[in-house]
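Hey, resending since the last one bounced:
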Amino acid sequence: MAMDKRATRLGVLALVGTMLFGLVGARLWFLQTVEQEGLQQEVEQTKRREVPLLPERGRIFDSDGRILADNERVLTVAVDWDVIRRDDDRAEIFRRLSGWIDVPVEEMEERFDSQVYSPFLPMPVIEDIDEPTAAAILERVEDLPGVQIMEEARRVYPFAPLASHVVGYMGRITAETKDAYLDDGYQLIERVGKFGIELSMEEELHGTPGKVVYEVDKSSQIVREIERIPAVNGNDIQLTIDLDQQQYAEQALESQLKLRQLETARNGLDPETDFKTRFFTDYPAEVAYKAPAGAVVVENHENGHIVALASYPTFDNRWFEAGLSIDEFEQVFPSKNEDGTKIDPDKSILVNRAIQGRYNLGSTFKPFTAYAALNTGLLSTGDYYRDTGTYQMTSIEEDQCNSGAVRCVFKNATCSGTGRPCVYGMVDVETALAVSSDAFFYRIGEDIMVANDYEPILQEQVRMFGFGADTGIDLPFEFDGTVPDKELKARYGELGVISEDEGSGYFTGDNVQLAIGQGLLSASPLQLATGYATIANGGFVMRPEIVKAVYEPGVPDDVEPGYADLSQARFAEEPNLRGDLVRQIAMPEEIQREITTGLRRVITGPGTTSDYYHSTTGEKLFYTYPSSAIPVAGKTGTAQGAGNYPWNDSSAFAAFSVDPERPFTVSAYLEKAGYGSQAAGPVVKCIFLQLSGMAPAEAVELSDPLDTSVLKPAESNHLADQSCYAGRFSPTAVTE
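The structure tokens again:
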């Protein structure tokens, strides 16, 4: 009986042993067959380490080859990881280094803990040290084990702060964007474009990373190099920007804004009170213009090339490469006033107002309203209208108008000689543009809507010029603009921008306001320039081009400092010298001639005679304009500001050359600076004189070294010779 039990136990043990050996065998078979490839890769991976090779960033040039963005070799102090892995060793090395490089130990510890630096490259402790400091550290290698001096690249802007809004700046990869950059092969230690061309052309400028593959032992020590794939440097970018014109545009804009801050708007006497009280009783007779900001665009309307793109206030993009602390950065780019309140948005620096400005266009919009009326057959070139100074809508019942529930009467701008709305008498499209008859365009706004069963015909017509959509320029953060319609008003009503009642529909009164560039219309100075360029070139809506060419990496320097030798450059892709055509719109010769003639009369006169002679809105400004200068056609505009206070009115002016050999279009917009003919107009006039070679311009010079000990925004950039602003004004002139 005992023998039977023992035999049973042995049988069970044999069975268990057999099963265990079977499981082990099955596992071995599985590992050697099914998972062999994966395990082999894992083993190989533990023996291999990849070290990225970062590409050198491409450079940026202006149209003449001036180097707007370059790379500068800088000296960096770095420490081998092996000597700082132990806490005590690290603390001692950092303590010794701190006195030499003036970096607190705590800051070096933060870098050690950040986990953004490659474990196979020395950890950078401080970038951009001077050569004497580097030499002193190298002489003390015995006291500073593992410390070495490395050469790295830093972005420099040789002509800064010129064109800073265009060129842009760079910064660290943020937590919000790191995943996307890592997926594209970036390293967290890299700096990337944050604004301007640096951002919009990041892919071209960055290049393709390379790598070195090492075999390492179990202690992660390098045994040998297995593979090396060199990095491909970024392409070089040439812009359409001409730095000579860019500098002049920036100077003309800034100088005029400063001049307008010395001027005042008149708070006149109200004729409705028999001139006994002022229009705005809480304000004095004169109120100073704020004139805080503005923008200028200079475009070649034949090919869409942007010659200059100025925005003010501006900044110095070198500050972003200066290693500023948070407190220092706040001094240069303040977000708050000294009393802690939020900074006035009118003074925002890091805004490219040329493409991001959201502006009413005022009367500079009237040529597009005129086109809509002529192109749809609402008016012909021979149609006249009697302008009596006011316009009363005819599509609304008189009882409703009299009740005051609906605004039915709209007035012309006030004439300086009478203090009452100007009366222009019989006007056609040409004359209405020349003297800027609001009443003439009010009528178009109502009639084009009523005659087309209240369909958005005016909106459809002006959108063809590019309004209400971004232009597609190769710059980031462009504003789309708005053309008011039923959908926009409903959305604004939901958002609380306007009241729910206002957002309940789109009415003829809205169209009346749109017809003169007011209401909920908004556009950027670039969109305004694109629209005028389309009239100038006969109906070709061109995509504004700011990138002229993309070159293969390594365009050599020229013998002249600050220039690249473009004769040695090779195209990375074929340049589009003609520009991209977005669309071609119908522009019959008689329509183009009618509008252009009206815009020419704005510049040259004559005006109209009714109760007395009314000059056109620009002829006094251009009274001394030389006949040999570029002949221009243009339009003034004044956009009403908050509270209808005249000191809040913004100034606009757009004009184009009628000389096919010099095909330039220029737009200017000066915020809260007054009438179009008094603020923006002189800027455009000066630019055309300079393009004609008749206004002196300073030579563009390389920048002086940035003084990081003086923390302040970009230096003032004034126009040395401001005589081009001058124009003769009459007390009875219409200043719109």
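The radius of gyration is 34 Å.

Sorry for the duplicate.
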